[in-house]
Amino acid sequence: MKSIYKFLAFTLLAVFTSCSSDDDATAGLMGENKVTLEFDNSVGSDDLLLATAGYTNSQNETLTITRLNYIVSNFSLTNDAGEVFTYDKEESYFVTSEETGSTEVVLEHIPAGTYVSVTFGIGVDQEKYLQGAEGQGDFLTIAEETNMMWSWQAGYKFLNYEGTFTSETVTEPTDFKVHMGSHGSSLDNYKEVTLSLGTDALVSDEMSPIIHIVADANDILDGENKLALTEQSVIMVSEEKSPKVALNTASMFTVDHVHNGTGDSH
Amino acid sequence: MKYLFWVLVSVFLVSCHEDDAYVAVKNTFLTVDVPENFPALVYDIEANPPTQLGFELGKKLFYDGKLSSSGFISCGFCHEQSSAFTHHGHQFSHGVNDLEGTRNTPTIANMAFFTEFAWDGATSHLDLFPIIPITNEVEMGETMTGVINKLIADAEYQKEFEMAFEEGGVNAENFLKAIAQFMVMMISSDSKYDKYVRNEAGGELTETEAMGLGVFQQKCASCHATDLFTDGSFRNNGLPPNPQLNDMGRAEVSGSDSDNYKFKVPSLRNVSLTAPYMHDGRFGSLESVLNFYTNGMVASETLDDSLRTKDGLGIALNDEEKAGLLAFFEILTDDTFINDERFSEY
């Protein structure tokens, strides 16, 4: 039965398209569909395996990562005509967590189009925070359950990155904790990034793309800004270091590839 | 300056279980009166307009020990009405399992007029403040998820949430909104001082009180500003840090060394009722507070500039001025507020 509907839909689509005098390729994309963003966490060129093997960064520190959770938010997609589709802000906050395996963000009801880039935030913006109870909705308890609530300041950890490390001078495996978020009203660590998709992501009633994003956890401490755990292994509220962690984290994302299709396979 | 919501859009229909008839439970909006001598409201009333049922639910939650892990420590345990919603006689807030915090319980009067909450401004939204004591392991030692689950399991609360809010029932958003509605209504503005300022009956000051007001305006009001008696800023007032606590204050939130030992300037409303004083409750009397300001201060990099003078640190006060200030503090007591049955536990 399903295939009949598909056939019918396709026929209708074809009829509709043939009636259109617009010969822009995008004009053939009708309706709406979901867009899936898969956040694939890695370290350097390798897959990220929690609490398994250590890896050594450029600062000669060997890290065994046990937790990598971060908040991604405020998604928007830009099409080939430069038009921006902004996802409903209220629905636009997600915790991705390597340990629970929830690393997919599914954006529903995206209008048909040929999308060339995606923009999103890392963390929670002040505007949402300052909406109080109304703005947080259920996201507060979601954050609490995923270790992303900084309960002592009733705020959010944008990034929760933990594990153990050794270095030349720290020879016994020692815990590290990197928790990054905004510092009350005094420091806003929310960042936004725009990633070019490389391959156009096509959305229509028939097409539901999967955008495969790689997050290189190495960048968090060993990106543009170098932060040595040997010097400070617990980085939380630090006016000097947390903005560096925020910048590094925002630059850890790249689009690896885009699957165009029905959205049910990689 | 009156926020009046006199029409409630929805009437809630509650099924009566005995006979399946419907009884209408009407919710009504409450009026938030901004006293004419106060600055403008900060709290966004339109985002969470207090209603009668929301307020009553907030009050019930405020006095319910269920919000703590032990089941015994409510918000009202440390915020006692008779002490203007502070923890009388306790230097630090007491929590579950006899644990003790490191800071003195601040008042929660007039919170709708503030932008930052807690001694260090850990949150900048009133709605979200209750998360801090609820989740603090030496205060209420719970989680938000834990509290919500306990409330969901309670049929009475379920009904009350349904009646107070149009949608959502028992959830974190409505939970925080209800407590905020209760706090937003807690306005203390009926002291003798207020009557004096507003030229109302009962506002005639004695000579000593008037002199004290003059001293206050000249020497204290740059920080304890407006009729809220605070400018809401974070300042280091020169208290010698307690080495056992070494509480860094605002710096714990901002992560900035320039904020070391800074705490929010507290309101002085009802100050005669809110002993002990300072963020760590080190002073048991207002006399001790004044003595500290005249000769107890220590210098440090972040000491507030207004407390450094060419004659030395602190505020110069003679005995007569101190007596005047103490008399002035008395007229900040608002008996209407501390006896207001709307806010009473029983």
UniProtKB/TrEMBL annotation, chain A:
PROSITE patterns: PROKAR_LIPOPROTEIN
Signal peptide: 1-21
Keyword set includes Signal: yes
Pfam families: MbnP
Keyword Signal listed: yes
Domain Copper-binding protein MbnP-like residue range list: 33-236
Keywords: Signal
Full protein name: Copper-binding protein MbnP-like domain-containing protein
Organism this protein belongs to: Maribacter ulvicola
Automatic annotation (TrEMBL), chain B:
Localization of this protein: Periplasm
PROSITE patterns: CYTC, PROKAR_LIPOPROTEIN
Record's comment on post-translational modification: Binds 2 heme groups per subunit.
Record note on cofactor: Binds 2 heme groups.
Span of domain Cytochrome c: 207-333
GO cellular component: periplasmic space
Residues the entry annotates as binding heme c 1: C75, C78, H79
Entry GO MF terms: cytochrome-c peroxidase activity; electron transfer activity; heme binding; metal ion binding
Keywords from the UniProt entry: Heme, Iron, Metal-binding, Oxidoreductase, Periplasm, Peroxidase, Signal
SUPFAM superfamilies hit by this protein: Cytochrome c
Swiss-Prot/TrEMBL cofactor(s): heme
UniProt binding sites for heme c 2: C220, C223, H224
Protein name per Swiss-Prot or TrEMBL: Cytochrome c peroxidase
Phylogenetic placement of the source organism: Bacteria, Pseudomonadati, Bacteroidota, Flavobacteriia, Flavobacteriales
